[in-house]
Amino acid sequence: MSGAGGSERPEEQPEERQRVVPPVLALRQEGVLQELVLGAGQPPHPGISEEQRQAQEEWEALEEIQSGLGETSGTPLPPISFTEALQHFQSTELSESWGKVRAPGRRGILAALLRCLCGAPRLRPQLRGEQELALAMAHCALDDSEWVHMRILQTIYQQLTRSRLGCPRYGAHWEELGFQGVDPGTDLRGTGMLGLMQILFFVLDSRTLLLAREIFQLSQHETQNFPFCIMSVNITRIVIQALQEERLSRECNRRHQVIGVLNDLYAAAFLQLSCLWKRQHGTIADAGFFLKVLQVVFFLTFSTPDGCCDRVA
Q1: Low-confidence residues of the chain, pLDDT below 50?
Q2: CA separation (Å) from 49 to 31, 54, 56, 63?
């Protein structure tokens, strides 16, 4: 009777389950896609249906998205230094980004009056190009087709996670680093590639690497956690505003550089924020308030009156 009972079991169930499997995955399980991929670039075999060819194209597109940072091949992209990344932007045509750069120091009578009262000097003419480069980077979006952009992204990942492996261009691993979602590019509005360049500096410079990892570890705290990369982007926004309002001109003139000043201000701001976070036992609910405090402190620091209309010839 047990044999008879076994014959009464529905035999159509496995077939029904197979129908639920998406066509692309089903074809991959049957080995059809493997054969199609091996035959890529060759004339389609007359035995391959239009549906199978379409499935092949879908699968190749999916693999391309998932392997954005070299994960599929198992070979991560080579890490990049801050100097090499900066040289890329110095030599790259950023025409679209240049067009969005607002020239500082041309905001009318009120701005000129405030500059006189606060004693803020103008940036030296020979530093204007570097200032404009920084602002152009802030308007340059993360581009998947730019190899240097992808290397910057992967180097940040490897330095913070201490991993030698590559990582996919999209995925939940970016949320673990403190981005809001699976695509870091969506969190760079207002800072562009300058936002990533400042993180790159932070995790590569020998003076700040240990600090960066310490703050990243704090961001993973059970109760005092915060999104590390989102916080970093917000600090870069403060830096950009200070640059646009020429609050940093005196320091840039003194050091004969702009981007170095921006990076040091960024690192100092992140240090200040982490100290405030630990001292006040901050939580994610305090993030907005702490950032506002940080902005006020730094703007007051770089707006100390020490002369009137201190201009640079």
Answers
A1: 2-7, 12-46, 59, 61-67, 70-73, 103, 105-108, 110-111, 304-313
A2: 15, 9, 11, 21
What would the pLDDT profile of 272-291 be if each residue is shown by its tens digit? 999 999 999 988 898 989 99
Query: The tokens of 178 are what?
Result: 């403190």
d(CA 47, CA 32) in angstroms, rounded, equals: 12
B/e letters for 135-147, b = 16+ CB within 10 Å, e = fewer, are bbbbbbebebeee
Q: How far apart are CA 273 and CA 215, in angstroms?
A: 9
Taking the model in full, what pTM does it have? 0.70
The answer for residues whose C-beta is within 8 angstroms of residue 193's C-beta and 6 or more apart is 89, 137, 138, 140, 141, 142, 149, 152
Mean pLDDT, the chain, whole residue set: 76
**Which H or E run includes 154?**
helix 147-161
